[in-house]
Amino acid sequence: MKRALVLLAACAALGGCATAPTVYAPASGPNAIGFSEYRIEPGRYRITFRGGPGAPIAQVSDYALLRAADLAIAEGYDWFRVADRVTMQAGPDSGPRVSFGAGGGSGGYRRSGVGIGLGTSFNLGGGASVAQTIEVLMGKGPRPSDRDVYDAREIRRNLGART
Question: Among 93, 101, 125, 153, which one has the highest count of C-beta atoms within 10 angstroms of its own C-beta?
């Protein structure tokens, strides 16, 4: 019995290591890690970046901005404004779980009953998953000094070095 529990714990630990890391790359599917975008009209995009389990919100946000900068530069724009921003988090209890437990008891006709139990569980999902969706408007020429307006080349230079 003890050997089986050790084997199960080892398999569970290896399964927890199998979560995909958060990297700056296109998403391979609708809910996959990475970026995706939807062109609303010329110079206007909705961009989503999904992080892997446990990815920091700041990293997910930076990668969404980096994708906006890359699109702006590719289309000949100088800057972009974040018109809308939504951050979503899948709960911290997401992912597979393994539980170990033991218990015992007795009872019946004219008998007393005693029971004890012990249990614990481990979240193998790696933590919460975060996704950020931003809607951006792109422009040319001098960058407006408004809030949430970014220089595309500066974002590429500063955030691109971290990928």
Answer: 125
Locate 43 and state its tokens.
């110079």
Q: What is the pLDDT of residue 31?
A: 83
Q: What Å distances lie between residue 112 and 84, 109, 116, 146, CA to CA?
A: 65, 9, 14, 75
Query: How far is the C-alpha of 85 from the C-alpha of 157, rounded, in Å?
Result: 22
What whole-number percentage of the chain has pLDDT above 70?
64
Structural Rg of the chain based on CA atoms: 24
Please list, in sequence order, all residues whose beta carbon lies within 8 angstroms of the beta carbon of residue 6, skipping any fewer than 6 positions away: none
Which burial class, exposed, middle or buried, applies to 44 when counting CB atoms under 10 A from its CB (0-12, 13-18, 19+)? middle
Residue 119 contacts residue 100 (beta carbons within 8 Å): yes
Answer for the pair 76, 140: CB distance below 8 angstroms, yes or no: yes
pTM for the predicted model, two decimal places: 0.69
- What would the DSSP string read from start to end of 8-75? HHHHHHHHHTTSPP--SSB-SSTTSSEEEEEEEETTEEEEEEEPPTT--HHHHHHHHHHHHHHHHHHT
